[in-house]
Amino acid sequence: MAALLCGGSALRGADADGKEIFRHDTFGDERFWTDTLKMHEVIAKAVDPTTALSVGLKVDADALPPGILKTADLKSPATTVALLKLNAVVGLKGTVESKDGKDTLTKVGVTCALCHSTVDDSVMPGIGKRLDGWPNRTLNPGAIIALSPAVDDAKKKVYQSWGAGKYDPRFNQDGKNGPVLIPPAYGLAKSKMATYTGDGDISYWNNYVAVTQMGGQGAFKEPRLGIDVPSPGPDLVHPKLPALKAYQHSIPAPKPKAGSFDAAAAKRGREVFTGAAKCSSCHGGDAFTDDKLHDPKETGMDATYAMRSASKKYRATPLGGLWQRPPYFHDGSAASLDAVVDHYAKVLKLTLSAEQRKDLVEYLKSI
User: Fold this and answer.
1) Which CATH class is domain 263-366?
2) Model's pTM, two decimal places?
3) What Cα–Cα distance (Å) separates residue 349 from each residue in 299, 341, 355?
4) Does 66 have pLDDT greater than 80?
């Protein structure tokens, strides 16, 4: 369990530094979330813990004093400020100043953990021990951004259309609306390319997100897309990328729970995976991926999102922990693993019996 929670194991060196960066470093993005979006004012006035949990924000139970939830008013924004003061809201970092016995939230920023961590719900839904690297599929980033008084009505409409578990990391660059599922940040140690379109490695994508999405103080340049963001001051992103990569690469994909799949069927399904279904031709090795990119036509995927990327193609998604994160594909268009199998059977013109399909699904659950 400790290895899964990524909090109980003893990390050393760059991994430990990267864990701190992943969980708590804003890269100076308070200048965006506070100075531009005024989210500190929104939170202090209108975001009580019940509201926060309803849009998918999580609370780290290990950061809470014993018994605090028994007396806390979960309908008061002041309680949210108190949780931020305790550094207990996963992925949010607040600066709280106390004067005359009153706490005031003066700054707020976001960290990598906002989208790429969740909790195990061991205390109550939304409150528990951290699960670093797990995609927060109940988080509604668009709804959160739309709360800002600095966002105009047209953009609010776009943000509110995304829904839970989805985010468009290109909307503020190209103005097109096409959210994708928040991807996991675990099981990537042997994956050469990051995210759905494989534009670069994990440090490339961390740099892109930290600067262009989180609003961190750093530089990012991508000639293929005409993006050139200079750092407004000392680069607070680039020096931290190696340690951040080391930590993310140390997070294993979570293993399925015992009894959550049919072991005998999964054993047969593995043979289907490597044989008749041809899955291993793209999803090979320990990482269940490959080192090349694929034209959308190869996989039968809608090409729209790929065409907005630098690569114009899709990466074969690493499959570790598949059981944990339905729906599937970059756009969530497959509601289940059965739907995934049906899609590829049609696109690749596979001749699979009903029994083979069933066994293959059980194997995918076991990865």
Assistant:
1) mainly alpha
2) 0.94
3) 11, 11, 17
4) yes
